[in-house]
Amino acid sequence: MKTEICDQFGIEFPLFAFSHCRDVVAAVTNAGGFGVLGGTAFRPDQLDQELSWIDEQVKGKPYGVDIIVPAKFEGKGENLSFGQLADRIPDDLRGFIDELLATHDIDISDQPRMAPSSLSGDTGKSLLDVALNHPIKLMANALGVPPDYMIEAGKQTGIPVAALVGAKEHAVKQVNAGVDLIVAQGTEAGGHCGEVTTLVLIPEVLEAIAAVPGGRQVPVLAAGGIVTGRQMAASVALGAAGAWTGSVWLTTEEAETAPYTVQKMLAATSRDTVRSAGRTGKPSRQLVSDWTDAWQPHPGGREPLPLPLQNMIAEPVLRRIDKLAEGGHPGAQALATYFVGQGVGLMNKVKPAREVVLEFIEDYLAAAERLGRSLED
Amino acid sequence: MKTEICDQFGIEFPLFAFSHCRDVVAAVTNAGGFGVLGGTAFRPDQLDQELSWIDEQVKGKPYGVDIIVPAKFEGKGENLSFGQLADRIPDDLRGFIDELLATHDIDISDQPRMAPSSLSGDTGKSLLDVALNHPIKLMANALGVPPDYMIEAGKQTGIPVAALVGAKEHAVKQVNAGVDLIVAQGTEAGGHCGEVTTLVLIPEVLEAIAAVPGGRQVPVLAAGGIVTGRQMAASVALGAAGAWTGSVWLTTEEAETAPYTVQKMLAATSRDTVRSAGRTGKPSRQLVSDWTDAWQPHPGGREPLPLPLQNMIAEPVLRRIDKLAEGGHPGAQALATYFVGQGVGLMNKVKPAREVVLEFIEDYLAAAERLGRSLED
């Protein structure tokens, strides 16, 4: 393919793959797509290691880094320590979680119950500094308008800056903030997402951007529910420049996904996900489980705390649950969950990441041919 | 266009238009699409009149009729009178609605407060009998598996039977029940809908139908959020045979939509709709308003009654609200709502129905060309 965005990013196929797993990033980039490493959960020295490994694998082929820097979070601008943030978590919440675990036959009273959240926004700058010492070709922020230092770094280095949006109003805001690439992500997406579906959001965002007075024509990638080439082709028919994907890589051979969660994903249909704030404090789509059922919007569920407080208490517990689930613990298996989009209903087999890319290309071509054929007399 | 479904239905463009307005049905059919009259709200003698009018307008061109016969509803099989059904509505609900209206400066204590619901399922058979006396080319049920008498009528007359589904499991059930056409409707749709988005649902349904042992390859129309030709093209790229639309006709010149509601729709973005059971008792997508805010899933909202009880109390009040809103009553304007999908964000101008069809065709061609161009070297 020779579209504008392929030229701009030096790729053969405008399939962008977000993953926390360096192997997936390298495999997608080496197969002609564009891998993007989710860097937020790493310490700066770890990120440096991961990126060095990718550099060796891709030998100059393009890849990017995504760093989540939330625009709004509890304690923003207050420069709070972990302890000070922890003090804002109500005492009875610990009891609520203990009870939930107890009914699932789990006792982790000897384990650390809270951990700093990777979504607290305070490591973004140092992670970005690390990333900029590597030949990255894109920097992205998956939650709101990128921080000033990212926009500034983009201007200084010429490296494009991408931002995820779930509503047309946010897209306009991002274009005005100077972003170079918009990822318009529908409600069917795994992880943080809005309420508008991809099929409606893409044309709405394109229309809104085109109407920005004096606005630059920023390319838009479609995201949300896209796990096949036909869905990517549909997105390009809608006017998107390509696709941004995440969930589909979670069941690849290379992925970091907890083994029991992979089994859940393979068995899940599209109706087995829910948009819940029970993991991070902001609505994000994940597998339905007894954990998500314990929090709103599930009827009778408890109201989650804001980001990053909910994440500080949820993440360490969920990590422990993953381990127990892998060991065959039935209560932990009922609680186990992870971010994934509705496309999980179409993810039915573990495959190498490279094979996923090749299947995307084949399926994209077949879909384009199908649409072309509908016009023949 | 010369696709299989065009041949099967004798149309030039596989755009199916559901409307309660006979003018829209005739206009779409005459423009080369396929109009489908929503027949449920009519008395049998009224439906006969509407269809006779359409017959005169379309002069043999194909159209269809949709009759909602819910598979599940309160009082099913009990043969209850209106009074007996009304007795199942808790007393305090009337007070709840009175209070909601009073806070909006509305007093309708002199008005009838309940009316038989057109969704009670008991007029379906007589409406279908009327429809079968007209040269209809499709009969559809927009809520669950079509009743036996519709499937039976399809077999006897050779007229195809269509059913709407919001999940792949339902699609398989419908194919096994003998349905000839599946309308797979995503969560972004106006009216009754499920939770899976169109972009995910279409491939999931196609895959599930293909896997039915010994199953017939039933064509699938895409529905939900489709208000432009580019979205229809995206659906065909996904594998759908065409599009089933509803919302887009609500802001046409011909539509029956209450005038103030049309203004609300033109101003709305895709985020101004909500999936709420507050109108019919089953989750259906509609414009957000003070009415939908009064019912779950809105936080603090009251739990709606099941179908058709909720509809018996909501519909007469909402009709009255429409009239007051048109007269400029601010409280009524805040309460006014109607079924519409997220595509409302792309509906920004009142147009004749014929023009909407022509724009669909033009936009479809442009989208197909865009996708084709992405493959050029």
Automatic annotation (TrEMBL), chains A, B:
Keywords: Flavoprotein, FMN, Monooxygenase, Oxidoreductase
Record-linked CDD domains: NPD_like
Short name of any one Pfam family annotated for the protein: NMO
SUPFAM superfamilies the record matches: Inosine monophosphate dehydrogenase (IMPDH)
GO molecular function (one): monooxygenase activity
This protein's record includes keyword Oxidoreductase: yes
Protein name as annotated: Nitronate monooxygenase
Organism: Mycobacterium pinniadriaticum
Lineage: Bacteria, Bacillati, Actinomycetota, Actinomycetes, Mycobacteriales
